[in-house]
């Protein structure tokens, strides 16, 4: 073991941070725009995917891949977040109407 390669550890740490970033983005997105914000995550995912395909640096390309698929996963999470709001687990935005008919 002549050299210690920290790329894998770096990718793991950055993956943790990227996924952690998306939780508040989903919560805030659903709060202010409802499920209508799903297309923002779709666009971010497509952009991240395209960028990851054209980068030569494996470390940075991997991070864009993680960002991309975290964006795609967030589409599902936005719809589930609405369900969590309707169950009372998260606060409702008083300026919006919800599918249950309660403001």
Please, could you describe this protein's structure?
With 103 residues, the chain is mainly α. It has 3 helices and no strands. The protein has helices at residues 7-33, 38-54, 58-86. Helix 1 (7-33) runs parallel beside helix 3 (58-86) and helix 2 packs antiparallel against helix 3. The longest helix has 29 residues, at 58-86. The mean pLDDT is 94.
DSSP strand content: under 5%
Structural class: mainly alpha
Fraction in helix: over 70%
Q: Which spans of ≥5 residues are poorly predicted at pLDDT below 50?
A: none
Please give the alpha-carbon distance between the first and last residues.
Answer: 62 Å
Number of helices: 3
- What overall form do the CA principal axes indicate? elongated
Overall pLDDT, averaged?
Answer: 94
Number of strands: 0
Global Rg: 17 Å
Q: Could you state the oligomeric state of the chains shown?
A: single chain
Order of helices and strands: HHH
The profile of the biggest β sheet is: none
In short:
By secondary structure, this protein is mainly alpha-helical.
Which secondary structure elements does this structure contain, and how are they paired or packed?
Elements: H1 7-33, H2 38-54, H3 58-86
Helix pairs in contact: 1-3, 2-3
